[in-house]
Specification:
Helix content: 55-70%
CATH topology of one domain: Ribosomal Protein S5, domain 2
Oligomer: single chain
Distance between the termini: 24 Å
Number of strands: 13
Largest sheet: 4 strands, mixed
Radius of gyration: 29 Å
CATH architecture of one domain: 2-Layer Sandwich
């Protein structure tokens, strides 16, 4: 009987093993030494089994930076890149090295590559290795220690190294290294890649990218944004009528508002409606501040105006919070509206503080004007609430988890950058702190937005890290092309990212005049244009991914089952003979 139990137990244990798959690739890393950073090679393993979408990570020894969130994010990006719902698969990642390494976000691209290869059953060329962060939209971002990593790859006998595009010239420790020269010197090929799909093709020869010639802009988005821009620009024109003659009040001049109004109209004619709305909003603040100053309101009257606007904000906030959120468009619209209401409230608080100083009347007027226009803008953006689209599960628990994940991603990315640029991210640390405060208050949508922007801000710094200024235009152009394809892909899935597209449009309009703002808004477009990876469709739709089986292990499993069945039959016959003999 004991043998029977053992055989049946063995058969049960063999079942999940038979349905598991394992994969491996080399991982480029650096380790900290007394002399500085030294390149090293680690081994990255992945085992996938039928499960519930869990992600596990083991590192031997512990990595110098936290790699847990990068692993989870890379897995999510990989599943999204091949349009797979991975909720029925468990992922077991293991990183082993001879000594403690700095992994963190720089391992992201390798983790995503291996994940796709395993899920798609692609064969990996293990004579290659890659390094780079993995970002929303499948963008492969810059990392540190490239020279050391290439040298380590050569020592390990690798033939090719994939690096993030734009990092062929490396600046570090007041020196510049041309990796093309290093490539020739070491006899190892270095290939620049921009996206996850580029990297997967190098490793496997398989093309996973969906290329779109253009973005299919939602008619609903165009109609609402056009009306939004028109409302704001019509308001600019009405306010401008109060200043037919050029007037100056204190440090304020109507000329700035007039110029912004003209830019808004020009952008409207080009049908770049978000840019048009942004310019006209700026004009409205200028004109509203001038109007307030021209009234010569007393402190008491200004205080009453502040209280009135605060009541309007509170009333509108209650109205918005009472509305349901079903689609990603609802979520993004809710974020925009709540952000504007929060900014309006903060601005009014600043105005109250300025009223206590007789020399800060102008500052108080501008703060009140900004708050009033922010409230007006929030009303305009609320038109997107209730727009059509795929329904997602956006309950409080899911939103809370997405917020927590995004905070962790931003913090992990910040820690990584600070290894190479110490004490440089105080502002981003404050943003992460603000996101954490919104999390504690239960404002999960605001938390998600603030943390997303914090992560984008870190990525902007990382993207220009070691990059020559002459390459910035190429960097922005490359990033905008990736953003464009990402948005087009979202639109093809039936999810039009209103924030992602708006920021993409704005970044494109800024490219020729303000390269750093263009870079920043392109990062915002990526982070806020791919929020769906954190949520599930409310219908519980699944791709029912077939994980595949190891044929040898499945044979072993069925042999085990057969042995168990035979054992059961023999035991039953023996028991029957014993009973028969007992009767005699």
């Amino acid at each position: 009987m004991k043998k029977l139990v053992f055989l049946l137990f063995a058969a049960i244990i063999l079942l999940p093993v038979a349905f598991a798959k394992q994969g491996h690739m080399k991982l480029l890393a650096v380790r900290e030494t007394e002399a500085g950073y030294e390149g090293g090679i680690a081994d990255l393993y992945l085992e996938i089994k039928p499960g519930s979408g869990r992600v596990f990570l083991e590192t031997f020894p512990l990595t110098r930076t936290d790699t847990q969130m990068s692993t989870r994010f890379a897995k999510a990006i990989a599943c999204d890149a091949i349009s797979m719902d991975c909720d029925d698969v468990d992922f077991f990642y293991t990183i082993t090295a001879d000594s403690a390494i700095i992994a963190g976000p720089s391992a992201g691209s390798s983790i995503a590559i291996l994940t796709i290869a395993m899920l798609m059953d692609f064969k990996l060329d293990e004579s290659l290795a890659a390094t780079g962060t993995i970002n929303s939209g499948g963008l492969i971002g810059p990392v540190g220690g490239l020279k050391a990593k290439v040298e380590a790859a050569k020592r390990a006998g690798l033939k090719k190294v994939l690096i993030p595009a734009g990092e062929i010239i490396v600046k570090a420790d007041n020196s510049t290294t041309d990796l093309e020269n290093l490539s020739r010197e070491l006899g190892i090929r270095i290939i620049e890649v921009s996206t996850l799909s580029d990297a997967v093709k190098e490793f496997t020869g398989k093309d996973i990218e969906q290329k779109f010639k253009s973005i299919e802009i939602s008619d609903e988005y165009t109609g609402i944004m056009k009306n939004l821009a028109k409302e704001l620009c019509d308001r600019s024109s009405k306010l401008k009528e109060s200043f037919r003659e050029t007037r100056n009040i204190g440090n304020f001049s109507s000329s700035n508002g007039i110029n912004l109004t003209a830019k808004g109209r020009e952008a409207f004619e080009k049908q770049t409606f978000y840019s048009s709305a942004s310019y006209c909003f700026g004009a409205n603040v200028e004109f509203s501040a001038l109007l307030l100053l021209s009234k010569n309101l007393s402190k008491e009257e200004m205080a009453k105006e502040i209280i009135r606007i605060k009541k309007d904000i509170a009333g509108f906030r209650n109205d918005v919070e009472s509305r349901g959120k079903k689609t990603i468009t609802d979520l993004e619209a809710y974020i925009v509206v709540k952000e504007r209401l929060a900014e309006a409230d903060d601005s009014l608080d600043q105005a109250l503080g300025a009223l206590n100083d007789t020399n800060r009347t102008e500052r108080a007027a501008r703060a009140v004007a900004y708050a009033a226009e922010r409230l007006n803008s929030a009303h305009s953006w609320s038109a997107f609430l209730g727009a059509s689209g795929k329904a997602f599960n956006l309950n409080a628990d899911v939103l809370k988890k997405s917020c927590q994940n995004k905070i962790s991603e931003a913090d992990e990315r910040k820690q990584y950058v600070e290894l190479y640029i110490p004490n440089s991210l105080a502002n981003i640390e404050r943003e992460i702190g603000q996101a954490s405060k919104e999390l504690e208050k239960g404002n999960y949508e605001l938390c998600l937005s603030i943390a997303s922007r914090a992560k984008a801000d870190v990525d902007v710094i990382l993207s220009v890290f070691g990059v020559e200024s002459g390459q910035y235009n190429d960097l922005v152009s490359r990033k905008l092309e990736i953003v464009k394809n990402s948005i087009a892909r979202q639109a093809a899935k039936g999810i039009f990212p209103i924030l992602g597209y708006s920021y993409y449009e704005y970044a494109s309009s800024l490219k020729e005049t303000d390269i750093f703002s263009a870079l920043l808004y392109s990062e915002y477009a990526l982070e806020l244009g791919n929020l769906d990876i954190y949520f599930k469709e409310s219908n519980g739709k699944s791709n029912n991914f077939d994980i595949g089986v190891d044929s040898k292990l499945i044979v072993v499993f069925f042999i085990g089952v057969a042995i168990g069945a035979v054992a059961v039959s023999l035991v039953r016959k023996k028991a029957q003979r014993q009973k028969s003999n007992a009767r005699r």
